[in-house]
Known about the structure:
The chain is an alpha/beta fold. It has two domains: 39-179, Rossmann fold, CATH 3.40.50; 190-344, NAD(P)-binding Rossmann-like Domain (Rossmann fold, 3-Layer(aba) Sandwich). The protein has 14 helices and 13 strands. The protein has a seven-stranded mixed sheet, sandwiched between helices. Strands 1, 2, 3, 4, 5 and 6 form a six-stranded mixed sheet that branches. β8 and β9 (248-251) form a beta hairpin. α1 packs parallel to α3 (84-100) and α3 (84-100) packs across α14 (396-415). The radius of gyration is 20 Å and the shape is globular. Bound molecules: glutamic acid. Glutamic acid binds at residues 73-75, 97, 147, 149, 177, 320, 345, 348-349, 352.
Amino acid sequence: xxxxxxxxxxxxxxxxxxxxxxxxxxLPEDVQEFLRTPKRELIVHFPVIMDDGRIRMxxxxxxxxxxxxxxxxGGIRYHPDVTLEEVRxxxxxxxxxxxxxxxxxxxxxGGVAVDPHALSEGELRRLTRRYTAxxxxxxxxxxxxPAPDVxxxxxxxxxxxxxxxxxxxxxxxxxxxGKPISIGGSQGRIEATGLGVMYTTRETLHRKxxxxxxxxxxxxxxxxxxSVTAMxxxxxxxxxxxxxxVHGGVYNPHGLDPFNLMRHVQDSGTVADYPLGDPIxxxxxxxxxxxxxxxAALEGVIxxxxxxxxKARFIAEGANGPLTIxxxxxxxxxxxxxxxxxxxxxxxxxxxxxxxxxxxxxxFWSEDEIRRQLKRIMLTNFDxxxxxxxxxxxxxxxxxxxxxxxxxxxxxxxxxVYP
Length: 419
Ligand code: GLU
């Protein structure tokens, strides 16, 4: 499938998932229409002076899907295929993810259509500063708080904090999360998403009578989410048999040591040429005969063509929206247990919330405290989702969506519609 089609279909997937949950909740059509529609969408075209002295134009987006439950929260993506439709889908998913975890936020997402690896550090910094300035009419600690996503990292969050602060005339750490610790970042933010993927997977396995040390795992993506998930699951005794990144993957049926792999990636920039295993394509990785499959890269990677070939019994959605609607249906009918993205990868935004709270109070917590609270929030809401799935006889995605959406509806009823 062409990548632009994939990006368009991310929005179609998000809407179809919403519609399905809305049907279960018997939501009136007008309320559905309100909740489906993004509140505001900003498109910016902006210049960056490249290292050769020439101006190059870039296009960026920031979408606020909902402000019903609070200021908007969500990452910023740097990827060549970023489109408005993709960012819109990702923003809607953030609304449900925050509501599912009971965080006082609405959903947002931003992105720039750029390959960050093709830029020098200076170009990346100038691009980030100009993009931040262009979307700054939407930003603010009480308005909209960005964070890292695919292609962005703590260094970039630091530049965003600095740019916004310089325009205000004073330091505003709470305007962005996922920053370096020295400027108000939180302990445990980098590990948060991967740890959360491990917690929800371990809990799901446990409820099915399976232990972490009994399973084999394949992970697509070895960025912030995939690498930490691999290390966290490895520590729990799981056998990580395959990992991949954009350049390709590596497979070893006897197990890979993700800590070793991490050191390899720091030197060579990819897992693809790791010597202690055989090369494997991203596509083959997704259909490996493993117990747990963790898609932790981009959306739409498992479609209707691939789904019938997936052999994993459990899918932990480290990425946002990795399955198309048809793939989801096929996998459900094959009896695969799918831990949905808004539940599985919510650890990142939970610790982002802690970072924001700490910045607002200028009082910082220990890493132990962060981990304890992260686990508490994830597992409390996991329990509620699991109980809904059992009592209503629905899959985990429908259970998570109905819970999240009903919380937003409750807030909407409490606020009413202005005027
Ligand atoms: N980009 C992450 C996500 O998709 C984190 C968002 C945040 O921390 O605000 O959940």
